[in-house]
Design a protein that fits this description.
seven-stranded mixed β-sheet, Aspartate Aminotransferase, domain 1, disordered C terminus, 473 residues, four-stranded antiparallel β-sheet, binds pyridoxal-5'-phosphate
Amino acid sequence: MPETPRAHGHEPDAVISLNPMYVRPPESATIARWRLAPGETEPSAAYQVVHEEAGLDGNPRRNLATFVTTWMEPEAERLYSESVGKNLVDKDEYSATAAIEERCWRIVADLWNAPEPLDTIGASAIGSSEAGILGALALKRRWQHARRAAGKPTDRPNLVMSSAVQVCWAKFCNYFEVEPRLVPISKEHPVLDGSMLADYVDENTIGVVAILGVTYTGMYDQVEDISRALDEIEARTGLSIQIHVDAASGGMIAPFLQPELKWDFRLPRVASINTSGHKYGLVYPGLGWVVWREKTAVPEDLIFWVPYLGGNTPTLAINFSRPSAQVLLQYYEFLRLGHEGYRRVQRASQDVAKHFAAGVRTMPELTLWSDGGDIPVVAWQLSSAANGFWTLHDLSDRLRMRGWMVPTYAMPQDLTDIVVQRVVVRNGLSRDLADVFLSDLRSAIAELQSVSSVLTLPPHHVESAHERAVSVF
Ligand SMILES: *Cc1c(COP(=O)(O)O)cnc(C)c1O
């Protein structure tokens, strides 16, 4: 880790002062910041310290940057607090929760048109990152087995995907030593659509990742076209390359809003799919799902067996202990909403996204990138009508003054000169709130348009991929 400069409060002896109301002399009025205190603190004082500091965070309702659920119904909160102490990995001890977990991923498999949802394999995970990595590990292991069986080397695996993939794919390639082959997106090809794929795949390709809901723009990679391009490659070269769909957000949108779109197991080349239960699955953070088309897509040697109900059950996970509450909450949402309920909720988010896009269209200083037609995400860039004295970063700052958290970031490689701003519409972002935002956006732009020289604030530093991972995705 690079050394961080010592900021205020980073001195080794820095302390936190307690509110005098919570201190009963002769108890100490301060607590060491960086060391475990030698003694105890009253629960009320400890609570106050944590509560007040966490209260400095932004208000999740005005966080238009995140895809992750920030509100659930009181019944869900009740289930959450009833199950906080249960460890998901204790399948023998908490066999009812284990049964619910299995039911959930089979429901998801069915939603994604797995040929035999009751005879395939799936898993819950801490999020799409872990879920996607499990999918990619299965691709890699299958490729290794096939190569070894053919007496060929296995030392140079690669994974083909668009340059606009989420950071979890860079992590997979880094941690599991796979070469990332990035097909650059461009203005002509804003998503991975199968064109140029033949230049990127070869006998060392473990698979192609398609994204259903690109994090930068909310647009869908064209999975059916990618599949067709791979069919042609197979016909020509004999290489049979599978697809993993990273449907972190789209996996819980497309089945309800674009049921005709073929992106899932209806395409025989799609071997596995992940989604984030905590995005449009509508559950609080800490939940992902991965499902394979069929059991044979997961090599036996990736599976660990854990005791369960006197027998053994197959598991696939990177973590061991995990909270089980989110799994129960997912089942709650499945029961609570059903197909029609999910459709209504996602449709409402999409309607608000389209309303947003319509509002942005009326602002000459902005040009839309995506209008919420795929996942309910709206992104825009600056147009030539802006006076040139300000950037979208300045606009983000002004919106932040009004409490709105709206990320601004450069597009990926080859498009890095394009800076976009993005709003993610989630359940709970009402049309009213959208109107308040649009009006704040309009006045922030009017203020910025009235400046007559370049804003003299220090220039925005170029965000590192890490910062983007933290603040945008
Ligand atoms: C959010 C996201 C991820 C990472 O998901 P987590 O659930 O946060 O781990 C991966 N891929 C895409 C396309 C995403 O939008």
